[in-house]
Give the backbone structure.
Amino acid sequence: MGTAWNAHDANKMSSGKAFGQALAEIAKDDPRIVAVTADLAKSTNTGIFGEQFPDRMFNVGIAEQNLFGVAAGLAKTGLIPFASTFAIFACLRGGEQIRTDCAYQKLPVKVIATHGGLSFGAAGTTHHCIEDFAIMRAIPNMTVCIPGDAYECACIIKQCVNVPGPFYLRVGRGMEPLIHESEEDCKDIDGNPIKIGKAMKLKDGNDVTIMAVGIPTRDALIAAEMLEEQGVSAQVINMHTLKPVDEEAIIEAAVKTRRIVTVEEHNIIGGLGDAVASVLAQSGKKCILSKIGIPDEYGPIGKPEDLYAMYKLSSQGIAETVQEIMGAEIEEEDWSDED
């Protein structure tokens, strides 16, 4: 099985639509919530909110820098603005305004970045966003979340209202296959519901840990099933919150399996893999780490599923990478005084 989806999957709720519906739902009981768009209400599904609350919807036109400046101004009046645009325009074109206008002042501006990663593959390199994890993680006061599917997106939207300060949430283009059956089904294997800042173990295993974030999380689960048939017991952990990252979950995985593979739709520099590596280095725990992501290069134009397969973000690619590290020996340190 690969990453490709079909018409049946496409008829289900997309992450973008989930954002719009969840926002409209919580706005009914919270008059502080407003939405701001840069002439992309339809593409980002902010229009769902605007249809129900037209007097709380603001379109600044194709001006992403102004988008976040206006959102900051609204936040200064006591409102909670949800500012939405494509991920590449949010983190790069509007990056300074997010940093200085929103984060520096610790304002509760919720940045909803759609079409993240390679999900807008056919639009070309200008619309691929593989730098946002690194950028947003480095901004003080910022919380960073990347849900794995539409239902996780809805749950996180409802929770982020109560998270102080700026918030960055990245989703795909929409129509990506689901991991869960409903919002109520967004739980780990122990029955704990999804919670910002807490990783979710989706499958248990003893030989290797696959830590995934965003759209590839579903393929990580499929890869784990494939590996079981090959005699490899893989646990899968959904790292939906990249900042603050769940350090406890990372250390526990390292101690348990001593092999970790990270999977992310992002440059291998500055994203999930580097966050995990930093925690491991500071913990002193011995562990083999392999990072699956986009090499430090600009990707070609193509269908998202083809690009995922190219960069081993598909279930087959993940399984192959896991098998590559299963044969690696973990050497014990030699602390003797011999030369």
Q: What stands out?
A: Confidence is low (pLDDT under 50) at residues 1-11, 333-339.
